[in-house]
Amino acid sequence: MDETAAPAPPAAPRSIGERLRAGRERSGLSVAATAEKLHLDVKVIEALEADRFAELGASVYVRGHLRRYADFVGEPGAELVSSYTARDARPPPPDLTQIPQAERRSDPRRLITPVVGLSCAAVLLLAIWWVLSGSRSGSADSASTQATPLVQPDVSTTAMNPSGAASPVALSSSTPVNAPTGNVPAAAPADSSTAATTKRDDATPVRETRLKLDLTNDSWIEVYDSRDNKLFYDVASAGSVQTVSGRGPLRVVLGNAAGVTVEVDGQSREIPSGAVDGEGARFVVNRSGSLSRAR
Q1: Are residues 294 and 282 in contact, defined by beta-carbon separation less than 8 angstroms?
Q2: pLDDT in tens, 242-287
Q3: What is the rounded CA–CA span in Å between residue 49 and residue 18?
Q4: How many domains does the chain have?
Q5: CA distances for 201 relative to 84, 196, 198, 205, 253, angstroms
Q6: CATH number at residue 61
Q7: Which of 72, 88, 104 is the last residue of a domain?
Q8: What is the pLDDT of residues 10-60, one digit of tens each?
Q9: How, if at all, do strands 241-247 and 260-264 pair?
Q10: Would you state the torsion angle of the CA atoms of residues 210, 257, 237, 54, taken in this order, to the nearest 10 degrees?
């Protein structure tokens, strides 16, 4: 009897990361070269190929990176995004720390010691204050009794008149010696109007640049403001219009520049030829509304 060969067992389904790695290897690209082509960090490529999606942040960022990477290496991006969405929708494992526990009753006897300690401290502080206040009042009384008023004695002088007779002239101690003559002007009151100051609010509102992107094809879009804050970071579908406003200059990254039309503050703008790299583009929307290649 002829022996027939047993059929080979079906290959186990590959994960999302394995499919991405296989597509990259078929293209003959390294991880670094792929990251440079996609304008991504090497750690993002490594995390995608190792199925470490939690390192990439929110699921919307993961879906965008998956679609871009899959389309770049020739894998079906929509299928891999659907696989990730189904995987992400699985319920998380139960949190054992949230299991209800029996309520612990507090022992009232534990409060006796702190209350007694606080009472003793209050009594001690009151006694110290009483002693210090008594010593201050006693020293003030002794100082007032020891002070004696300074009395200027009466001084008598003898003035000679033309006849030679001496006539005593008494100088009263109440008469000040070397008293200044003339009227002393009183200090002029301060003008309250000169002391008042006013503050002016010189702050002016910051003008924002309005960017409108009209898409005829799917494209990855990143928009950052002058402070490098993310204004848009996702995959935009064909036929949609994305409007972003922010403090200029704005930095823009497009994954499919040919399928995107740009308007700035209602004016149509052309993407500079020097800003296009392959299918993508990187440019800056200046505050004047013009576009220039991003450095």
Answers
A1: yes
A2: 999 999 899 999 888 888 999 999 999 999 888 888 778 999 999 8
A3: 6
A4: 2
A5: 53, 17, 10, 11, 38
A6: 1.10.260.40
A7: 88
A8: 454 588 989 999 999 999 999 999 999 999 999 999 999 999 999 988 989
A9: unpaired
A10: -90
